Each structure stands twice: as structure tokens, then as C-alpha cells.
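Subject: design request, 112 residues
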């Protein structure tokens, strides 16, 4: 997928009720229909995982990924206090830390 493809996916998913909230929570729980068992999953995109985004620019939704070709990738949508929003996509980062830093810098530059 290209950066444009991921940006389109992030934008589309941001308008789906419930999906966006799930992608930016530290954990999410669900109940298996057939057994009633409750399971909790850890979310790798959660801001506490090292994405240094200010409280005045919260993440609305995000999508992480890794492939040998694209390396560490991240697409996010954020909104500032004025209601302006941006989708930022980073491909080809060599680590989660550098990916998160790049995304934070791009959001800081494009979404004052």
C-alpha cells in the first residue's frame, strides 16, 4: 500500500463510530459470542507506547504496520483545539521510536 492508500483508509475509518475510539485506547475488551469469555487485547498504537503528542492534539484514529518492504509504518488522524484535522502517514521508519517521532513532528508542523 502507498502512503496515499493508508491516508484514505485512516480518513474513511475515522468516520466509523466506535472504530476510531478503539484504535487509540491502551486496551480493548470484547466478549466471545460462543463462550461468553471476555478477552482483553493490548493496542500497539496507544499514545503511551511512545507517541509524543500533546494533549491539545489527541489522536482520533490510527493504523500501525510493519513489513520487510515498508518497515515500520503509522497512519494517524489528529485534531487541534480549533477543530482542524490532519492525516499523517509515515512509511519506512527503522524503529517504532523513530516512526512515532516523525509522526509527532509532522503533526506539530502541519497542525499548529
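Subject: RE: design request

Done. Sequence follows.
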Amino acid at each position: 500500500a502507498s502512503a496515499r492508500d493508508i491516508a484514505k483508509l485512516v480518513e474513511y475509518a475515522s468516520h466509523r463510530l466506535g472504530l476510531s475510539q478503539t484504535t487509540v485506547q491502551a486496551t480493548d475488551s470484547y466478549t466471545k459470542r460462543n463462550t461468553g469469555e471476555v478477552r482483553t487485547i493490548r493496542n500497539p498504537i496507544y499514545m503511551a507506547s511512545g507517541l509524543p503528542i500533546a494533549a491539545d492534539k489527541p489522536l482520533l484514529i490510527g493504523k500501525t504496520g510493519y513489513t520487510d518492504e515498508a518497515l515500520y509504518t503509522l497512519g494517524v488522524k489528529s485534531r487541534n483545539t480549533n477543530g482542524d484535522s490532519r492525516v499523517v502517514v509515515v512509511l519506512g521508519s527503522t524503529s517504532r521510536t523513530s516512526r512515532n517521532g516523525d509522526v509527532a513532528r509532522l503533526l506539530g508542523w502541519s497542525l499548529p
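The first strand starts at residue 27 and ends at 31.
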